[in-house]
Amino acid sequence: MRPARTPGQRVLAAVVLASALLAGCDRPAGAPDPRGGPAERTAHSAKNPTHQAQPFRRWGLTAPLPAPPPPPARRAPRPAAGGLPVVHHVPTRERVVFLTYDDGAEKDPRFVDMVRELRLPVSMFLTDSVVGPGYGHFARLRSVGASIQNHTLDHAALRGLPYAGQRAEICGQQNKLRARFGIRPRFFRPPYGTYDTTTLRAAADCGVTAVVLWRAAMEGDGELTYAHGPGRLRAGDIVSVPSSEPTGLSLRERTTRLLRETQRQGLTVARLEDYL
To answer: Which of 27, 72, 98, 162 is deepest in the core (most CB within 10 A)?
Structure first.
């Protein structure tokens, strides 16, 4: 016969048993997991938001962005009169749009997080005098997948300027970006969207392969405006997000609105460089 336990021993045994139950240690080694195998555990996690990261909700979306389809074989756009293509819309059957950001005035570190977590393929058209000492921010954006493109040294309206002045603005920024990032951008966006044949000649001489304009723009008040055509997003649209006034919505807020509208139209975001 086993000797009776003392009251102190009985209390100690109860504490040990309760601790084991709380720690989930009541399942002997080698016993099956009550949640089942890997598939069952995955299903359990799917029902439990704490087990599943949902970054799209953190950025104000109700569903994840669909991955863009594999990019088609690139076709060179038709050159304009000045010998360089000018594009505001990419002819494609794929349900994609292209997000482009101008100037570089807003340097919110959380926008870097947004691009990384949502895997947004964005193109940043930078102006040296606007970026100022903030190139490190755009290096971080580039490290998470953003591309860096040319928007002149000083944001001067180019149309009507002599060739030397236009070349200095465009080539000067090409050189700055090469020194900063080790790249020579393929795309150029003229400030205010204005240009002439001299602009196209100067840009081509600076190594640019396309002048990129836009069909839609997300303004500081969060409204989408359209340069021409129907007043809704279409497959192949290039969307510009210019720097906002201090009283306007932030870059993150405007991007969220833009992504919601993209999803509402059954579209997703693709990398412009894959299509041009």
So the answer is: 98
Cβ contact 169:176 at 8 Å: no
Residue type, 243: S
For residue 219, what pLDDT is reported?
Answer: 87
Residues of the domain holding 186 = 55-62+82-274
Q: Name the one residue in this structure whose structure tokens are 């970054």.
A: 55
Residue 156 counted as domain residue: yes
Split into its structural domains, the chain has a count of 1
* pLDDT for 13: 52
Phi, psi for 30 (deg, rounded to 5):
90, -10
CA dihedral for 153, 88, 74, 56, sign (positive or negative): positive
DSSP H helices, the chain, are 7-22, 38-47, 55-58, 109-118, 128-131, 135-143, 163-181, 197-205, 251-264
* C-alpha to C-alpha distance for 39 and 22, rounded to whole angstroms: 25
CATH number for 171: 3.20.20.370
Assign 85 to helix, strand or coil: strand
Which class for 210: exposed (0-12), middle (13-18), buried (19 or more C-beta within 10 A)? buried
Segments of the chain scoring below 50 in pLDDT:
1-2, 11-12, 15-52
Instruction: Give the model's pLDDT for residue 52.
Output: 45
Burial (CB < 10 A; 0-12, 13-18, 19+), residue 254, is buried
Position 27 scores a pLDDT of 45
The HSE-up count of residue 261 (CA atoms within 13 Å, CB side) is 22
3-state secondary structure of 57: helix
Which pLDDT value is given to residue 273?
94
